[in-house]
Design brief:
Length: 128
């Protein structure tokens, strides 16, 4: 799943991969419906994982959009508190993350954790 602009050509030549493009712009004020896009991207990762698929989630630098979607996915799939998920991601990602430098995106992750819609999903924890 690409969270940034990509070329139009195949992602991995000679393989059958499902390539999903989600545009999250890594700058303040440039994302229409940011909460919705974050939620839907995380739900799509959850759907793919529930189907038993391996998911490569990436953005341009893996330092803000990727951890944002990964944290929301972790919350949906495992019930992980978003602050805990972000802390775990900070230690897991080789170059850390810079989500705090993108306040709009960071706030959207925090706000999604407190919405009734996010808390209501999924009905069963993800087991894969």
């Amino acid at each position: 799943m690409s969270l940034c602009r990509m070329g139009a050509g195949p992602v991995l030549h000679g393989t059958e991969v499902e390539h999903i493009r989600v545009w999250l712009v890594d700058s303040q004020g440039d994302n229409a419906n940011l909460h919705y896009v974050l939620d839907q991207a995380a739900c799509e990762v959850l759907r793919l994982r529930q189907e038993g698929k391996r998911v490569l989630l990436h953005c341009y630098a893996r330092q803000s959009c990727t951890p944002a979607v990964a944290a929301v996915f972790s919350h949906l799939a495992f019930g992980t508190d978003l602050r805990t998920a972000l802390k775990d991601l900070r230690t897991t990602l080789v170059h850390g993350w810079h989500l705090s430098e993108h306040p709009e995106l960071h706030n959207a992750v925090d706000e999604l954790a407190t919405t009734a819609a996010l808390e209501a999903r999924p009905a069963e924890p993800f087991s894969g």
